[in-house]
User: What shape does this take?
Amino acid sequence: MTASATPTDAAQPTEIDNASVRDASAITLRNLHKRFSGDAIALDGVDLEIRAGEFFTLLGPSGCGKTTLLRLLAGLEAPNEGSLTIGGKDVTETPPHLRSVNTVFQSYALFPHLSVHDNIAFGLRMKGIPAAERERRVQEIADFIKLGSLLERRVNQLSGGQRQRIALARALVCEPDVLLLDEPLSALDAGLRTQLQVELQRTQKRLGMTFVFVTHDQDEAMVMSDRIAVLDSGIIQQVGPPHEVYERPINAFVARFMGHVNLFDIQGIHDVTVTTALGELAMEAPLQPGKHGGVMLIRQEVIELGPTVSEGYNGLDGVVKERHYRGSRIEYRLEVNGQPLMATASNLGQRLYAVGDRIKVSIHPEDVVRIEA
Amino acid sequence: MKRGAFQRGLSLFWWLMLAFLYLPLAVIVFYSFNSANSAAYFAGFSLRWYERLLNNDQLLDALSNSLTLGIASSIIALIVGTLIGYGMYRHRSRKLGWLIVLIYLPIVMPDIVFGISDMAFFITLDREFGILGPSLMTMIIAHVTFQIPFVALIVYSRFVGLDPTLFEAAKDLYASPFQRARHFLLPTLKPSLIAAFFLSFTLSIDDFVISFFTAGPENATLPIYIWGAIRRGVSPEINAIATLMIGAVVIAAVFSLLFNRRGHAGS
Assistant: This one.
């Protein structure tokens, strides 16, 4: 940079850079394999495109490979096979300190020997950003994340929520191409967690930065994400926006993981009639040719309960076995043809059924879905 | 009440233990201020033995040898021990159990074994190659060998107490390997390094056996001088030297403790 450059001159090229990056795909993963010593396979051929400016979530149970994938993006692990492109550059072999990627760690990993201010300034200092600009940017991010009064504190004097914010500020201040977040909210209590979920999402939208978020909590994933990738056993099961993954799960694993489902093994399908342990139910459309077997999915919240069967619906006889009152909704565990069936009703002030009540269960053919086992 | 009696008994036991540990030291300190020539009676307060010390050239030489030996060996042990401690931490996941035991072993090895082995080793080197005859250098090498395990263990335990993701956070925040050492490892270790230095120094000042076997004729340290002086008869001067040494060791030990504690409080 020349001596005559003003702050505005300096700021403009970065804006242009950001815009050009945003057109391109932010992250491309090709056939990534990762094995750990022994035969533990963490990633078994992952192909994925993450768009620039997107809030992307890697969702799955522990041991599914989501954290390994994040660590590969950060450069903290190297893949055994495959390639990794960030912002158009192949970074498969690039060490972490040369990648324009920052991480918010699950444990926050704030440096105990430094004040809050010096923690936030650490990345800028390592990059060799001049002191004046460093100060300006630390102040800016401190205002943005609202932790101005904490700057001179030592990190061991802070609460969990404050540490989380500082870890976020320390990563954001570096203005990386991609921000990686490794279950950053899992150590916080429920109330704070909900609040920070919203804050994180807002922050991401305001900055237009690409966020890759790892969590095992499907509610958290759905609230925050533009798109979700569900992982299991090192393989991506499904990628899509939250409503798609929730409403149209591709297989039984995804359906079970997203929750609130009833699944029954399919015993036979003839035209639009599907036979399971529950009985015979009508589906909306006949099965695509070449597909057979699989699992029948009925979401808990599409099941209607009442004294009669609604017109055009599948009708079943059920007995209430358990009732869980949750305020905004009521969950019933029913028994239908000797099979357990979960139904969730929004609480609209309708009558509550008691354990032992015999009721009619109505399911619309559109809500009877066949998925892969 | 029964419980009250038991508590009082415990506290009495505590004071008895302290007396057991510190009474001999207190007696030495007390008699170092005795104006009489003998420890048989106390004739009144005096600093004459301390004055005598200041005019005793042999003793001052011994003191200077002790300090040179203590500081030089501690600095070398600090550098080597820190590298070993870091290596032990970095490769802790590998099966290095028996190697780590080799680092612990010198701590429990009797000094006399160490001293004799060092002596035999240096004499052999001197005879065969004409290097490392008994001198201050051989003493420094011998001291470094027993200081290293302590330094390595202090550094290792500091690293084990740290959140391992801190190492990754430093990488993630653009720190090159050199910057990680300069801006993360060293500042994080600093209190432990100071503690390790003072502990090494204390061990060195304290050592008689190993120094005795590896010293050249010119290199008597304070403990060796005291030993020689006592063979000629206990002089009250010895009480004064001992008192000064107690003071020095207490100060170094307190520093070591304070800094080690501060290091661990940070994590």
In short: The CA atoms of residues 115 and 331 of chain A lie 49 Å apart. Residues 190-207 of chain A form the longest helix (18 residues).
